[in-house]
Design goal:
The protein is an alpha/beta fold. It has 10 helices and 10 strands. The longest helix has 29 residues. The chain is globular and about 65 Å long. The structure holds 5'-O-[(R)-(carboxyoxy)(hydroxy)phosphoryl]adenosine and zinc ion. The site of zinc ion has 5 residues, from helix 4. The site of 5'-O-[(R)-(carboxyoxy)(hydroxy)phosphoryl]adenosine has 20 residues, from helix 5 and helix 6.
C-alpha cells in the first residue's frame, strides 16, 4: 500500500509518499518539507493568513517533488491522505481541498488524518515498537500524556492546563530576543549556560495526577529577565539553561506519575512532537526508562516536527486496523482532541 500524504496544519507545507513495508527503513519513499519559518520569523510567530497563502503558493510543487522523489505518479499510489485537524483553518483547508481533489480525480480512497495521531504513531513508523505505550506528546500547540492501547485507542492521562511546552519555549525565546521557533534556539544557547543560576519553583508539585502547567515558569522567567539591568549573551544562555532544566524536570516528574496511572504498565515510553527533539528531555527520559527497565523510543530529530510522512503512516495504520477511508464530505477540524478521534 502506498499513500500520498499532505500536511499543512501550521507553518510547514509537506507532502510524502509512504508505504507499508515490513522494514521501517523502507517505509518513507519521500518526505518533502517546505518550511515557512523564515517568512514568520520577523513576526515572532506564525501569522495564520500569511501561512495559508504560502501553502497555496507551494503545495503543488511540493506534491510533484514528493511523487518524483518516490518514483511514483498519482495513478500508482493507492490512497491520498491529508491532515484534517487540529491546526490553523486556512492551512488545513488548502491541504484538505487539494487532497480531496486528487483523490476524486484519480478515483483513490481519501483519508482525513488527525495531526496528533500522526505525531503519536511516528515512533512506530520509524521502529518496531509494540503497543501499549505511554506517550508524551509535546509540540507547539499541544502537551499531554496518553496511554496508547492500539491504533485509535488513546486515553488522555493528563495535559497542560495552559500553554503547550513548545509554546513556552517560543515565548521565552521571544523574551530573550531569540528567533522563532524558540525551542531549537533555546536548546542551542543553553549548552553554554549555567542551569543553576536562576531559581524556579517546580509547578503542580502538590497536585495529584499528571497535568502540567507552564504559565508560572514563563512568569518567573519574565521576572528573572526584569531583575537584570542589561541582558548579556551569558545571561541569555543562563536563563535558557535554567528554563530548559525546569521544563525538563517538570515534564519528567509528571511522566513518572503518568506511568503510575497507566492500566497496562507498558514496556514502552514514547515521545513525539517538536519538543521531543530536545536532547536534554530525551536524556532525562532515557534515565527514567533505564531505571525502570523499559524501552524508550523517540523519533529521529527530523521526524519530531511537522511532516507529511507521519500523516501517511497514520493513514496506513488506520487502514490496517480496519478503519474505513473518509468521505469526501468530511470537514476540517481546527480543534480535534485525540480522545475524540474515532467516528
Ligand atoms: O510538532 P511541531 O513541529 O508543530 C506543532 O504541531 O506544534 O512543534 C513545534 C514546536 C515549537 O514550539 C518549537 O519551538 C518546538 O516544537 N521545538 C523544540 C525543539 N525543536 C522544536 N522545543 C524544544 N527543544 C527543541 N529542540
Ligand atoms: Zn505538530
Amino acid at each position: 500500500m502506498k499513500v500520498l500524504a499532505i500536511e499543512s496544519s501550521c507553518d510547514e507545507t509537506s507532502a510524502a509518499v509512504v508505504c507499508d513495508s515490513e522494514n521501517p527503513e523502507n517505509r518513507i519513499l519521500s518526505n518533502v518539507i517546505k518550511s515557512q519559518i523564515a517568512v514568520h520569523a520577523k513576526y515572532g510567530g506564525v501569522v495564520p493568513e500569511i501561512a495559508a497563502r504560502n501553502h497555496i503558493d507551494v503545495i503543488d510543487v511540493v506534491i510533484e517533488e514528493a511523487l518524483e522523489q518516490a518514483g511514483e505518479e498519482l495513478r500508482t499510489v493507492d490512497v491520498v491522505a491529508a491532515t484534517a485537524g487540529p491546526g490553523l483553518i486556512g492551512g488545513l483547508l488548502v491541504g484538505m481541498v487539494t487532497a480531496k481533489t486528487l483523490a476524486m480525480m484519480n478515483r483513490k480512497p481519501f483519508m482525513a488524518i488527525n495531526h496528533l495521531e500522526g505525531h503519536l504513531l511516528t515512533p512506530r513508523l520509524c521502529y518496531d515498537v509494540e503497543f501499549p505505550h505511554l506517550l508524551l506528546l509535546a509540540s507547539g500547540g499541544h502537551c499531554f500524556f496518553s496511554e496508547i492501547f492500539g491504533v485509535g485507542q488513546y486515553k488522555i492521562l493528563g495535559q497542560s492546563l495552559d500553554d503547550a511546552a513548545g509554546e513556552a519555549f517560543d515565548k521565552v525565546a521571544k523574551m530573550l530576543g531569540l528567533k522563532y521557533p524558540g525551542g531549537p534556539a533555546i536548546e542551542r544557547i543553553a549548552k553554554n549556560g549555567d542551569s543553576s543560576r536562576f531559581q524556579y519553583t517546580i509547578p503542580m508539585q502538590r497536585r495529584s495526577g499528571c497535568d502540567v502547567s507552564f504559565s508560572g515558569i514563563k512568569t518567573a522567567t519574565r521576572t528573572h529577565i526584569a531583575s537584570l539591568e542589561t541582558l548579556s549573551d551569558q545571561d541569555r544562555a543562563d536563563i535558557s539553561a535554567s528554563f530548559q532544566r525546569i521544563v525538563v524536570t517538570h515534564l519528567t516528574n509528571k511522566l513518572r506519575v503518568a506511568y503510575q496511572m497507566t492500566k497496562s504498565k507498558p514496556k514502552n515510553i514514547v515521545v513525539a512532537g517538536g519538543v521531543a527533539a530536545n536532547q536534554a528531555l530525551r536524556m532525562a527520559i532515557t534515565g527514567i526508562c533505564d531505571r525502570k527497565r523499559i524501552n524508550f523510543t523517540a523519533p529521529p530529530l527530523g521526524l519530531c516536527s511537522d511532516n507529511a510522512a507521519m500523516i501517511g503512516w497514520a493513514a496506513i495504520e488506520r487502514l490496517r486496523s480496519g478503519f474505513a477511508s473518509s468521505s469526501l464530505n468530511v470537514k476540517t477540524r481546527p480543534r480535534w482532541p485525540i480522545d475524540e478521534i474515532n467516528p
